[in-house]
What we know:
This protein has helices at residues 2-18, 56-59, 62-72, 74-80, 95-107, 121-127, 136-156, 170-174, 181-198, 230-234, 283-297, 321-341; strands spanning 23-25, 42-43, 90-91, 113-119, 160-165, 207-211, 240-243, 267-273, 305-306. By secondary structure, the protein is an alpha/beta fold. The chain has a single domain, classed as TIM Barrel.
Amino acid sequence: MAAKTRQAVSEIVRKQADHGVTVLNDGEMGKESYSTYVRERLSGFEGESETSIGMPDMAEYPNFLEKWMQDMGQSVQGVLAPPACNGPIAVKDRQQVQTDIDNLKTAGVQADDVFVSAASPGVVALFFTNHHYPNREEYVKAIADAMRHEYEAIAAAGFLVQLDCPDLAMGRHLQFADASLDEFRTQARLNVEALNHATANIDPDQLRMHLCWGNYEGPHHRDVALADIIDIVFDARPNAISLEACNPRHDHEWALFEDVKLPAGKVLMPGVVDSTNNYIEHPELIAQRLVRYAKLVGKENVIASTDCGFGTAAGMMTVDPDISWAKFDVMAEGARLAERAL
């Protein structure tokens, strides 16, 4: 398995470079998913699995939900029902993150930048039910203290650290669907405070964060508006912000930046290709999406990105791999068109 993983990292890095991607990552090849992998690296997650979250937007369309669950099969069950926290959280395996780092270093492909993704404290708290800590505040803080080692190890290796933060957006309709918006914002602030605590020793320029409403094809009509959380997102230490910006529920939200000023030092990475469907976007459309952001926040503050990952967990994949690579091709082409237009 170690040899296969090392080979997979080398192949995925090379393919990204071949398809015009200039900010690369390791494809998360050493992880079962973008969030639940932490159960292998931290102690305290040995409780019985339970379905800790629901899908309120899909629940309103039960026929679609049934079909979606059938299509995703057992892989989605592992993500939606990981083991519960039943004891003190601490680092139990320091080698796995080092293996991720070593595999990426040996891949040997030159790029403008290289990043490694890591689960944010808030998203761990979203998926793993707490049966040990007296309240959510102490639970999230314990996760942050334990995850600090992983974040600092990635940064010390010279890579960018991407904190995956679906908790700040998807958490609204999954974990806090019955709460008021103000109550959710309080919990989102708690998550950001924990993230900031865990990354306090890392330069904000070496940090990215990914804002996500859920990388699944579904109604998404219960998604929280970007306008309702953008101030909390800006309070997070990472200077680069990846956000879903091209799917039909959020494609309009670029206009928010007509009124909201991007803080100094911050960079936006709007998604310009959709990671949930098999349409190959037109390069001109990608260019249009990039130009409208650039005109509002400055072209030096915009990096083309995908809406989310194309495989957020092993076995969970809705886009054909060949089409995924074609989307990267047109993303690079669209970025070049945007550069010329600007």
